[in-house]
Every structure is written in C-alpha cells, then in structure tokens.
Design goal:
Number of strands: 9
Order of helices and strands: HEEHHHEEHEEEEEHHHHH
Mean pLDDT: 83
Strand content: 5-15%
Shape: globular
C-alpha cells in the first residue's frame, strides 16, 4: 500500500471522500466506457454516486469513503500512478476558500472569520463547516471549492473549523446568479470586435482565433441558469493560454470584452463578468495582450 492510498483511507475513515490525482494535480481520465458522457456522467456530473464502470472516472464525483472501492483492483492502476490525493469538500459538508496568493490571503484575514487554514504552494486554503455551490474567480485570487469540485489534500492544517459565514456565501451568490434573459442587472458596453488589425503580433490565423472565440461564447451563453461567470473565467483562461507563446499583441482585451458581453447577456452583473474574465486572462501568466 503506497502513501497516497494510505492518506485516502485515512480521509475516508474520517468521512471525507477521497480520490487520486495524476501528475499536474488533475484527476485521471475517464475510461473508454465513460468518455464523452457515454455512461450518463455519474449522473451528468451533478452528484456523486455509482457509475457503470468500476474505475475512478468523473473527477470529484468519483471520490468515495468506501475503503473497498479505494483498495479495489479497478482503482489500483490510479494509485500506482498517483502524484497526489484530492478530496471532495462538499461530500464532507465542507467549503474550501482557495486563496491563491498573498493579496488574497490578506483580504481573507481582513474580511473573513478565522477558521482552519492549510498552507498551499502560493497561498492558503481556509476550510469552513458547511457546503455550498462552487465557483472560480469570485474575486482576484479566490476560488470557492465545495459542491461539484475537488481540493488537493495538503494536510490537516491548523486552527478550529468554524461555520461557513454569509460573507463567503455572498461571494458566490452575486457571482453565479444568472437571471433570465431580458432581466439584465447591468448595461453591457458595446460589443467589441476582434480582428487582425488589433493582433499584429499573433501567430494564429484569423479563422483559428474566431473559431475558438465562437465556441467559448457559446459555452458562456449556454449557462442561462447558473455558472456563467465561472464559465467566462474558464473561456478567458483558455484563450490566454492559446496565445501564451505569441510575441503579441494578440488583441486579448478585445476577445475578453466579447466574453464579458456574452456573460452579461445571460444576466451576470457586468462588474463580476469583467473581474472573472480579467482573472482568466491573467491566470496563465505572461499573456500576449
């Protein structure tokens, strides 16, 4: 039994659902029977639970407290290759406020009640009692990990866990609420237009950029009930990574404005949308503006 499996079994014994992570701090790939949601997605990545296959497919949803599953032959291939252990905070009625840098930690110390803290590579995890909806980029350097998300296990931390405060819930309530179309909570600026004139240092073709942008906008505008701001963050981050090796400029600000406009069109408050997109564009570091 390797160290990661022992850690997972310890978490499971404490009622914390665990799963293995591969190199890069990401879950193992879905097996062929679960690829492209063929098995129903456990189901559709909205809840944890049984899957048709026996492997640790579907990321956070595969996390379990069942020692027989954790030590099964179907999971052993993952433990042999695992580089870390993750847990599903929501499955243990916990919420992790992921503070990604020193500025975020300073903000938390000023604005949030103290609770158990775990040092990370660049910041801290603050762990509260109580589960809630997860969301990325709720403010600069701050992600909320609870339901439908996993967090890397970095040790038990120090301090006493306190109940989830309204201040944390409010971060996601404002970020993730998506009113119906036609009920916009802010006025979007005029739609920015990206073209080759603003991307004189881009190494990609115009067709390549426009295709990626169109797909991203479609993902954002599909979030008519919730999650549009988090989706905008992910799309902006993806776009920035596509241009990370370009000499620049690539017109990312214009691309970002299109993503903001898409998020606002499904009801995300414009300040939240702009912040999520800005954080996404800068998340990969050194973007070619």
């Amino acid at each position: 039994m390797n160290e990661h499996l022992r850690t997972a079994l310890g978490l499971a014994a404490a009622g914390v659902p665990a799963l293995p992570l591969r190199v890069g701090k990401v879950p193992f790939w879905n097996c062929p029977g679960c690829a492209k949601n063929a098995c129903g997605g456990r189901p559709n990545m909205k809840t944890s639970g049984p899957c048709r296959c026996l492997r640790p497919c579907h990321a956070w949803a595969a996390a379990t407290t069942n020692p027989d599953v954790l030590t099964s032959k179907a999971w052993m291939f993952a433990w042999v290759q695992a580089s870390a252990v993750a847990y599903h905070p929501g499955g243990a009625s916990l919420t992790v406020v992921d503070l990604d840098d020193a500025d975020a930690v300073s903000w938390a110390r000023e604005c949030l009640p103290p609770t158990r803290t775990v040092p990370t590579t660049r910041g801290e995890h603050w762990i509260y009692l109580g589960a809630m909806r997860s969301a990325n980029a709720v403010r600069p350097g701050v992600d909320i990990k609870s339901l439908m998300q996993y967090a890397r296990w970095l040790g038990p931390g120090t301090g006493t866990m306190t109940p989830l405060p309204d201040a944390v819930r409010a971060l996601v309530e404002g970020e993730e609420t998506t009113p119906g179309r036609g009920e916009l909570v802010s006025s979007s600026p005029g739609r920015a237009t990206w073209d080759a004139d603003v991307a004189t240092g881009c190494r990609h073709t115009e067709k390549y950029v426009r295709t990626g942008l169109a797909r991203g906008l479609a993902l954002v505008m599909a979030r008519t009930e919730s999650g549009a701001a988090s989706q905008a963050f992910g799309v902006a981050q993806f776009l920035a990574k596509q241009h990370a090796q370009c000499p620049g400029p690539c017109g990312l600000d214009a691309l970002g404005q299109e993503v903001i406009t898409a998020a606002v069109s499904v009801g995300v408050p414009e300040p939240y949308a702009a912040r999520a997109v800005g954080n996404g564009l800068n998340a990969s570091g050194g973007r070619a503006a």
